[in-house]
Design goal:
By secondary structure, the protein is mainly beta. Helix content is 2%, strand content 46%.
Length: 325
């Protein structure tokens, strides 16, 4: 959400625009194996349930890399609980074992989306976690990903059969278990897609256009399109044809559990920006690899410019949000 406030005794202007809401989720596929390489079971793909505490985790730990120990989903946990997943759960019913061991290399896929078909841009990472032979013996029924072993969970699910029903995977002491994980992050817009809307400024209806401007985040090694939940995103304003002006200061609101959004306030002191304000740009960068090529950029353009004089301060508040697939 954007709010523009020009601090003069007789001028107060409010502008509200929502940034697109990102969606996250993942899928699992299980197989059992023996020491000689024989595969004794291979199940179907089934989807996860992202927990509320998992979405809360994105407020800081936005990195969803399967192969990195600074990720929200580095550990795979298995257990023997049987309750159907609910978003209010915080972990497995009955934890048995965990692993952070990766069996195979990372596979990455992405799409810039198709505006005509209404398809979003998305990126995915796929990797297989492995339990060694004898390390998770038991009648396994549940699994989930977490930041730490059996702690700070992101999701939970029951093992499922081809019909989508809960199933039991009996792992013997001469068998190991591998779980292939595919993590997906969606943006609701295609790259370079535009969306239009109307806002009211001082009682006057003003149109705007928002565009997802850069697809560099699709090829990042981590699913981290930028500051979805952590820290502050870069933000600039400009005239229709002028250079971008950085704010004098920025701050981010305190996060509360269940919000699934962050609001940032950027302030341009009087004289910092003077002219016919027309455009806003947000560079939502991956702060562990801060370059425009890995960031998700949004461009907002007003149909009618708003004049800013040298005695006026500009305060811009915008909201970025996320949810589950």
């Amino acid at each position: 959400m954007y709010q523009i406030k020009k601090i003069l005794p007789d001028i107060k202007r409010n502008l509200a625009i929502d940034l697109p809401c990102f969606s996250v989720g993942c899928f699992f596929r299980a197989e059992k194996y023996k020491a000689d390489g024989t595969i004794t079971y291979q199940g179907p793909w089934f989807s996860n349930t992202v927990l509320n505490v998992g979405l809360d985790g994105l407020r800081l730990d936005y990195n969803l890399a399967l192969s990195r120990d600074d990720s929200l989903i580095y550990y795979l946990n298995v257990g023997t609980g049987t309750s159907e997943p609910t978003i209010s759960q915080t972990g497995l019913d009955n934890f048995l074992a965990s692993t952070g061991s990766n069996y195979e290399g990372l596979t990455e896929n992405s799409s810039v989306g198709d505006e005509a078909a209404g398809d979003p841009a998305w990126t995915s990472l796929q990797q297989t976690k492995s339990f060694s032979i004898g390390s998770c013996t038991g009648n396994l029924t549940e699994l989930g990903l977490s930041r730490s072993s059996n702690s700070s969970y992101f999701n939970r699910q029951l093992f499922r059969d081809e019909l989508g029903d809960p199933t039991v995977i009996p792992v013997q002491d001469d068998e190991g278990l591998r779980i292939t994980i595919k993590v997906i992050l969606y943006a609701p817009m295609a790259i370079n897609e535009t969306s239009t809307g109307t806002i009211t400024i001082d009682g006057t209806s003003v149109g705007y256009t928002i565009e997802q401007w850069n697809g560099g985040w699709l090829t990042d090694e981590r699913i981290a399109p930028g500051c979805i939940g952590q820290g502050s995103a870069d933000v600039y304003i400009a005239t229709a044809d002028g250079g971008w002006i950085s704010p004098s200061s920025r701050s981010v609101n305190t996060y509360s559990s269940g919000d699934y959004y962050r609001e940032e306030v950027a302030i341009w002191d009087p004289g910092t920006f003077v002219g016919d304000w027309k455009r806003i740009r947000t560079d939502m960068k991956n702060t562990r690899s801060p370059s425009n090529s890995s960031g998700m950029l949004f461009l907002i353009t007003l149909d009618t410019a708003q004049t800013v004089v040298d005695t006026e301060e500009v305060t811009l508040t915008f909201r970025r949000s996320w949810g589950r697939v």
